[in-house]
Amino acid sequence: MVEVKLFSGTQSEYLAEKIADFYGQDLSSVTIHKFSDGEMQPVINESVRGAYVFFIASTFSPTENLMELLLMIDAAKRASAGYITAVIPYFGYARQDRKDKPRVPISAKLIANLLEAAGANRIMTMDFHADQIQGFFDIPTDHLKSAAIYIPYLEEQDLSNVTFAAPDVGGVKRARTYANHFHRTLVICDKYRKKANEIADMTVIGDVEGADVILVDDLVDTAGTLCRAANIIMKKGAKSVRALCTHPVLSGNAYEKIEASELTEIIVCDTLPLRKASPKIKVLSTGKLFSRAIRNTHEHRSISALFVER
Fold it and tell me: To the nearest whole percent, how much of the chain has pLDDT over 70?
């Protein structure tokens, strides 16, 4: 069997260590040298010739995380690695997946091109902002779903009074997965934006009177949409509001918004590190799921069983 090497990006070590632990081996060694002007030079400290190499690194802000990943992939390619997989739990720039106004980039496609040009043979990620981003790649792309983590967690909860909700029209398919699985009703929060990260108006479509509502989204950034949806749902007569949000971007004053909102709890995954702890934020680990996906890739076994909607 071809040897497996697991490497971590600098700011993703907290998750890479969990993945390596579930996989049953230590992380391989890489050193990131920094020049005085800020340039970086990754040095892989052991042979990767002919090996299955997995680089675990989310491409969140700052952009150095993306650049570091690209440089590590290039280093492995030039060191004759047999097969290179970029494991990107949180795929940055995924929200820029189309031209929604004149003269703007399709940044998600550009990032896909950069990863392929660097030498990646495969991409492994979780919950793209839009499923069709998979089509931006001309190499195999394993799109894991957080439902594989959230559904077993929810199956241990009392859902007899639960209604699932999409915080916007774009999230209907995602929320419907849970509503269908648990045979519960679905409501939709229809929002209108004047500009990015700023909501002009929001309406709840559906009945939430007396229900314990669970909002479902792929990420929480400024938390404006989520908190506004929770507050409106409570005004419509809901008993409580919780949220499932895979990627905890939580920029700006998101923590303060969440703590001041009607949300009882937000359950997130550890695809991104939290800047600080919050009594309203619960974290579920993706380490076991990614370790299983890595093992299945190495052993040429099916990945689909890990992310097919149940």
Answer: 95
